[in-house]
Amino acid sequence: MRWRLSIRHITGFTYAGTAHASYNEARMTPLSVPQQATLRSAVEISPSVPTWRYTDYWETQVTAFDLQRGHDHLRVTATSLVETGLAPHTSNGSTSDGHAELLAPTPLTAVSPELVGKAAQAVGMLGRADPSDRAVAVADWVRENVAYVPGSTGVRTNAQEAWALRQGVCQDIAHLTVGLLRAMGIPARYVSGYLYPLQEAEVGDTVQGQSHAWVEYFDAGWHGHDPTNGIPADHRHVLVARGRDYADVTPLKGAYHGAPSSHIGVTVEITRLA
Q1: Which range marks the domain in which residue 52 is found?
Q2: pTM of the shown model
Q3: Which residue from 226, 233, 63, 253 is spatially nearest to 155, judged by alpha carbons?
């Protein structure tokens, strides 16, 4: 199924006084890959400032900019037009040494040997020879045991902490799934993007969408799976960035000098156009 989606994503900061200088990177531009085509994209900054783009190590489109004058807010608005569902959420590749980084734990995805053993026993790993079968079974097990509770964790919560809480957001569920898959020898990467929340939509429908996280696992190619919702990544998923964990794909990050800041939150509006 093909959809054409218009996306508007707003985020940023306000300052309790004056910020004198800031240096920033935004990862808010959807990728053009076999399963989706980005037909149009723009990233606008307030206060207005020149930007430049580059592709990072993980092949994510990065918009970089800095403000060298006093400002009391930073607002980033990313708009894009994306056609989805062009192909299954898979891509080719090989299990070469190039996947070593996607088999190693990170501070956000590391899990204990006890948890790995518990998961392996629960899903019957010894009886599952097919990597895809094992990967989906692990993702389903995480979903069954970790409740999706908005606001229950923060961006610095790691996989093991989310497991201890038995609750988290999509970021935590993705981190935990990625960590377990890597510990079981299946290359896995963390994916960020957008999710149109309704399974059915009329052309012209605009909804409050959401920034979302899911995973890709390797089995003779990369396959996308959404462990939070228990479904393969499909035409409702818009891929923006991939990496080892959230730290590689943070939508807006940087450094500044000045007064304390407050996050303005995140607003995502998604409209189905076709």
Answers
A1: 3-86+251-272
A2: 0.94
A3: 253
